[in-house]
TrEMBL record:
Gene3D superfamilies noted in UniProt: Histidine kinase-like ATPase, C-terminal domain, PAS domain, PPM-type phosphatase domain
PPM-type phosphatase domain segment(s): 207-420
The organism's place on the tree of life at top rank: Bacteria
Signal peptide: none
Region (Disordered) location: 1-53
Listed Pfam families: HATPase_c_2, PAS_4, SpoIIE
Organism encoding this protein: Streptomyces longisporoflavus
Protein name: SpoIIE family protein phosphatase
Record has Hydrolase as a keyword: yes
InterPro entries per record: Bact_Sigma-Reg, HATPase_C_sf, HATPase_dom, PAS_4, PPM-type-like_dom_sf, PPM-type_phosphatase-like_dom
Length: 557
């Protein structure tokens, strides 16, 4: 198009016009690096242009711009004074006085933040584009600012002034469609977050011997919700199961799979199985729930009598433990493949968790960074844990901050902090243990009764609780002597909330409660214990054999 017919010239227009009007000048030869001036000039050699194609350069520029439905404005000089606005621009923003600076006469451009961009275009002589800017009237436009040169009016035609051609395409429909898409994505994410949080524990169980806190933080607004979860399950007899896991997926589906796995974990935990057997059951279940998704998980059991965590890991990150002296221990082995892969026999390991220790279970969002190896993240967590003191919730918050997790983090984060307090003074008096080896066959029964009577009296329990405890201990010992094998042991334990009575022996046959007939001479011991105790249960012990226990809730002071 020939801008000279409307007192405006784009770069290169003068040279092409001179080449057409001066017969003494031959058209420039195209080299390999040259760019064709117009599409019609790029044809094969010998091609004859049609009259319509040959007349493109003679089109009146102003008439073309007036008819374009897009918004067009032409400004010049450092103040961006108005040289021209087309009809579409005037219809959108109103008539604009020619010769006035843009800051005063084109306030819409200032509101849209285009004036600094126009200054940049003027300085660099390079076009710039900004996409989907919403104007005051509610319409959205994509603006392209292109540098042009304009002859100064009333002077020699060779005296030029720098200008900018502002071209705005109406993209309202596209912007509204994009906003609807973003709103839909936000709604889906909010649904997934709500589902995720509703499937997590609303309130953590607090065992007698442990202090526990957890934190879950979904990824930022640009990240889809994952399947991180944690749980705390009291198993009875003073033992506690600690769980953390991560479904390798995103969105509502991952949250739903997580919820099913968490429910299954709680069900299997009630069987009081060793950690590796729980993972073995979950491995097959995970494949049935969704064969396309796998999950990592750690299942650990704290036994206050042993002062340790017995755990099994399905492809999850290692448990970290800080002992009373501040030394960090990493539970490295054993680790099997993630749940849902099948074909693997999981095994259990043990890590100490004595009084004064703090353990941390976490998901990969806490330590994994795209620019670092994950081992570096775990090492950073170890350093942070070494200096993190305070309550479990305070430790959670400090670890989150130390690892740089913010609201716009790109992955979900779940952290579970467990503390085994070192009790002293009057607090220690509320946590007592006593044990008796049951030797000598049936003669052990009266010794066990006498032992329980003396211990419970020394712990100053109310008479009713004292008598019920002695009766329960007698029944459990009698059951073990009749059906079990040596070695046998009676253990009495009290906490600030309950009395726990446990008998272990070498036979792995678990007792069950049954209804005894009137003529039966046996079968009533477990029924009596189940009737008088707050809770009872049994489990197989790691070295072979079983433990049968019951507990009584202490009256509140």
């Amino acid at each position: 198009m020939n801008f000279t017919r409307w007192s405006a010239r784009l770069p290169g227009t003068q040279r092409r016009a001179a080449a057409r009007t001066d017969p003494g000048i031959s058209p420039p030869q195209r080299t390999e690096s040259s760019v064709p001036a117009a599409r019609a000039e790029g044809g094969k050699e010998g091609t004859t242009l049609t009259p319509a194609a040959a007349g493109v350069d003679e089109l009146p520029t102003r008439e073309v711009l007036d008819r374009i439905p897009a918004l067009v404005a032409l400004v010049h000089g450092p103040e961006h004074r108005i040289a021209y606005v087309n009809d579409a621009y005037a219809a959108a923003f109103g008539e604009r006085p020619v010769g006035e600076p843009a800051r005063a006469a084109l306030p819409e451009l200032e509101e849209l933040g285009l004036l600094p961009l126009m200054d940049q275009v003027l300085r660099s002589s390079k076009p710039r584009t900004v996409k989907s800017r919403k104007a005051a009237g509610g319409r959205s436009y994509t603006f392209t600012c292109t540098p042009v040169t304009l002859p100064v009016s009333g002077t020699d035609a060779q005296l030029m002034d720098d200008g900018i051609l502002v071209f705005a395409a109406d993209v309202t429909d596209h912007a509204e469609a994009a906003e609807r898409l973003r709103a839909s994505e936000r709604s889906q994410r909010e649904t997934a977050v709500t589902l995720q949080r509703s499937l997590l524990p609303q309130e953590l169980e607090q065992p007698d011997d442990l202090r526990i806190a957890a934190t879950y933080q979904p990824g930022g607004t640009e990240a889809a919700v994952g399947g991180d979860w944690y749980d705390v399950i009291t198993l009875g007899g003073g033992r506690t199961a600690l769980v953390i896991g991560d479904v390798m997926g995103r969105g509502v589906r991952a949250a739903a799979v997580m919820g099913q796995l968490r429910t299954a974990v709680r069900a299997y935990a009630r069987l009081d199985l060793p950690p590796h057997e729980v993972l073995q059951l979950l491995d097959g279940l995970a494949a049935e729930i969704d064969a396309s998704q796998i999950a990592t998980m750690v299942y650990a059991v704290h036994d206050p009598n042993e002062g340790s965590l017995t755990y099994a890991s399905a492809g999850h990150l290692p448990i970290l433990v800080r002992d009373e002296g501040g030394t960090i221990h990493r539970a490295e082995e054993p680790t099997g493949p993630p749940l849902g892969t099948g074909g693997w026999l999981h095994t259990s390991g043990t890590v100490p968790l004595g009084p004064g220790s703090t353990a941390v279970l976490y998901t990969d969002g806490l330590v994994e960074r795209r620019s670092e190896d994950i081992d570096e993240g775990v090492a950073a967590l170890e350093r942070a844990l070494a200096g993190a003191t305070g309550t479990p919730q305070v430790v959670c918050d400090r670890l989150i901050r130390a690892l740089g997790v913010t609201a716009d983090h790109d992955d979900d984060v779940a952290v579970l902090v467990i503390q085994h307090p070192a009790r002293k003074g009057l607090d220690a008096e509320l946590f007592r243990n006593a044990a008796l080896e049951l030797l000598g066959g049936v003669e052990a029964a009266p010794r066990a009764r006498a032992f329980a009577t003396g211990v419970l009296a020394s712990w100053r329990f109310p008479p009713e609780l004292h008598d019920l405890g002695v009766l329960a201990a007698s029944e459990l010992v009698a059951n073990s002597l009749q059906h079990g094998t040596p070695p046998m042991r009676l253990r009495l334990r009290r906490t600030d909330r309950r009395l726990i009575i446990e008998v272990t022996d070498g036979d792995d046959h678990l007792p069950r409660r049954r209804r005894a007939n009137a003529a039966d001479e046996a079968g009533r011991g477990i029924a009596i214990v189940a009737t008088i105790a707050s809770n009872w249960g049994s489990r197989r012990t790691p070295g072979g054999g079983k433990a049968v226990w019951c507990e009584f809730a202490l009256p509140r002071a």
